[in-house]
């Protein structure tokens, strides 16, 4: 990453661009309640149109697969028993799943209705093509930022076309449409309205009968800074006719109750129709007070279980979180395409899904011996079950990690083919905290959003919703926008 002594773009443009970002909610909340703009690229990446169209076609099939796996409770409990013993957090989810659904001999009919909002992250590898990095089945956020990133670059092209054109890899390319925010809101509203319509309760007010308004509950982390992305979704849901409320697990632990016919009720609000978890993917989300990571807070995890015992649309269910885990990704990657018929994918669909799954290997003594003696170390990454950044080990560090990894923790880890995406051909400008920096080796990760309710697609594009582009210098391992060296980007398509 090379800083330019003299700004490559006039300060006036940078100032107006950052103001646009903050004005449109593309920002993070600061401790003093001010806003800091999200770091961004000054120009979009370019991808071949056929590659993007392939991802648009395959990603809803991945979501269909994960949805059907998540509702195959016997399969989940049989396949994830070992990792549940190796990873305390997965073990906690596994136990909660058993409480929610019973075991094979005492299978319970789940009350909740599954609302699967996923972001499937890909990198377009130079040698292997576009491959899945990970499935995000819980807290699959930033669809609003994804759409805003596309709108932001459209604003720059309109205002300063010469500046924008200067940084494009290919002059003959067109913007990829992105309606991630609108389509997520559309899909959630369908789920909430269907749940709401199944209850006939009406309220008499001044001799007028009014139907209860569909209500959406977002479960959030306490005092978090990534709130504007969330509020953008809430505004879009308001336009769809939904009431929106926000609560932490700690607040919900004393505010939820059961209404008639397994209706979920929130104190001071009333009946809840849809629940969207933007928390719950890490131990700290369940703490009432600071504690050890190995001990998960009983009270708050039982609050999540309480939600699933009601007739309400939920993302993410325990099942969805387990089905989109790294271990399940590995199992599906190693499985023959023919086996996907169990989850209602025909052979052509299964092969499409398999075409984007990168090689993965379980950690056992045989794999460790192979890695130490035969593997090219830089071709692999070691992953545990954690969500977000900071959970990967690269290159020669893998040898050291495996050497000191206790045998009982083997099942919590997996080796995955390391992806090396195409670097942008031209240098570009990243803007962070109002300061521009020239980056010569920018690479990108593309996340495709999908929405399914009760096993069926609920967007206007057969389950596909939109995309999020995050770019970073090739030399950086952590590419998150919120935590990492990533910047918000968008996509142009070339023929």
UniProtKB/TrEMBL annotation:
List residues traversing the bilayer.
none
* EC annotation from Swiss-Prot or TrEMBL: 6.3.2.3
Which keywords belong to this entry?
A: ATP-binding, Glutathione biosynthesis, Ligase, Magnesium, Metal-binding, Nucleotide-binding
The protein's superkingdom reads: Bacteria
Q: Sorted alphabetically, which SUPFAM superfamilies does this protein's record hold?
A: Glutathione synthetase ATP-binding domain-like, PreATP-grasp domain
Gene Ontology terms: cellular component: cytosol
Per UniProt, residues of the Glutathione synthase substrate-binding domain are: 215-323
Q: Which InterPro entries does the entry link to?
A: Glutathione_synthase, Glutathione_synthase_a-hlx, Glutathione_synthase_C_euk, Glutathione_synthase_N_euk, GSH-S_sub-bd_sf, GSH_synth_subst-bd, PreATP-grasp_dom_sf
Which residues constitute the signal peptide according to the record?
none
The cofactors it requires, by name, are:
Mg(2+)
**Which pathway is it part of?**
Sulfur metabolism; glutathione biosynthesis; glutathione from L-cysteine and L-glutamate: step 2/2
The enzyme's main class, written as a single word, is ligase
Under Gene Ontology molecular function, one entry of this record is: glutathione synthase activity
The Swiss-Prot or TrEMBL record describes its family as follows: Belongs to the eukaryotic GSH synthase family.
Spell out the protein name for this chain: glutathione synthase
